[in-house]
Amino acid sequence: VGATIIDGKAVAARIREQVAAEVHELRDRTGAAPGLATVLVGDDPASQIYVGGKQRASAEVGMVPIDRRLPADASAADIASELESLNADDEVSGILLQLPLPGGSDASSLTALIDPRKDVDGLTPVNAGLLALGQPGLRPATPLGVIELLADVGAELAGAEVVVIGRSNLFGKPMAALALQANATVTVCHSRTRDLPAVCSRADVLIAAVGQPRLVTREFVKPGAVVIDVGQSRIAPEQAGNKSGIVGDVDFEQVREVASALTPVPGGVGPMTIALLLRNTLQAARSHARVEV
Ligand SMILES: NC(=O)c1ccc[n+]([C@@H]2O[C@H](COP(=O)([O-])OP(=O)(O)OC[C@H]3O[C@@H](n4cnc5c(N)ncnc54)[C@H](OP(=O)(O)O)[C@@H]3O)[C@@H](O)[C@H]2O)c1
Prior knowledge:
11 helices; 6-stranded parallel beta sheet; 11 strands; globular; binds NADP nicotinamide-adenine-dinucleotide phosphate; alpha/beta
């Protein structure tokens, strides 16, 4: 007995392989491989690791990584002109502005400068609006990854009660919109939600994206529910019970006894984000090349 542990690494590896095959085919047909540009401002160590991971992963699937770096004291105008030059560059299919930005630069107004057709993070107002309207566009990678994991485990979304904890623009809101588009009945919880355990325990699919270690305990979970843990918090490795010191929002040991399926942290949602970012870049490249998506 106990929950099926959803293997995000394996699902992500399959998606990356498929993207690699399709990149190869697109290059044969059009003569150009998709280019993925990352823009890193400053030298925050965590951001450097994320950007390095995206560069490496895009090269591995045959894309052309484009690595743009600006000093920590770059002005908003400097960042804007970097984004404009990437918007204008035909070899660039996708643009990622690594957040958070150092100093006083406003991340949302700079993100909004990215050409929506190259916005592979799906964070521009145009793509957020298209998602809200249920129209085609580029969607944020992490919620797309969650949809893939739910499909992999055979979770039916149509008619299901889906509860999302967290309402960020990066994850919670687009996650709710994608679940709604898949015909779920969606509830979004946040820090002002009254009686969080009671609301969560209605869920057939419970998705937690808060950033509070082990917030979701046994009493949050309806027996047989599918639980997706998006949270990533760093704590002392001896408390995390793993070498990385990364833990999720879900108390894994408690919840595995009641859920039907559960993602681990690490190794669940985490690996999906880059895989879906690559798929988004392929989608962007195809629409530039006017090839059917
Ligand atoms: N690739 C990945 O695996 C990936 C991608 C994205 C995010 N994450 C992780 O997911 C977590 C959330 O990320 P985010 O960017 O969405 O974070 P965020 O912007 O900090 O949003 C957190 C959300 O949780 C809500 N919240 C905070 N405390 C709560 C509580 N006690 N009860 C209920 N809701 C509460 C907040 O409510 P209010 O709105 O009321 O403040 C907010 O909506 C983080 O751990 C992050 O590292 C992982």
